[in-house]
Specification:
Elements: H1 5-14, H2 24-42, H3 73-76, E1 83-84, E2 87-88
Antiparallel strand pairs: 1-2
Length: about 100
């Protein structure tokens, strides 16, 4: 797959990135290099290789999925610069 100048401009537009006309060729080359690397990865034989989430085999620790009501708002606001009735007080920012 190859990216042309029109596609580079389209990608820049979608990403809301301003690209000057003299930079298009450089970005075109970089995108084509990235896509070339991805094509190389597609050629790798992964037959029999199990998908993994980490390089080290591990089992995630699980906890009970229990609903709690919290009931410790006073501990949450203890470090707030200003609080009232267990709510954070902030300066007014909208008139």
């Amino acid at each position: 797959m190859s990216v042309d100048a029109k596609t580079v401009k389209r990608i820049a537009s979608l990403a809301r990135i301003r690209i000057e006309e003299d930079e298009v060729a450089a970005y075109q080359g970089e995108l084509n290099a990235i896509l070339g690397f991805i094509e190389q990865l597609g050629e790798v034989d992964v037959e029999g290789v199990e998908p993994m989430t980490s390089v080290m085999p591990m089992t995630l620790r699980l906890r009970e999925d229990v609903i709690t009501d919290g009931d410790y708002a006073d501990r949450v606001v203890v470090n707030a610069p200003l609080s009232e009735d267990n709510f954070f007080m902030v300066p007014k920012v909208i008139e």
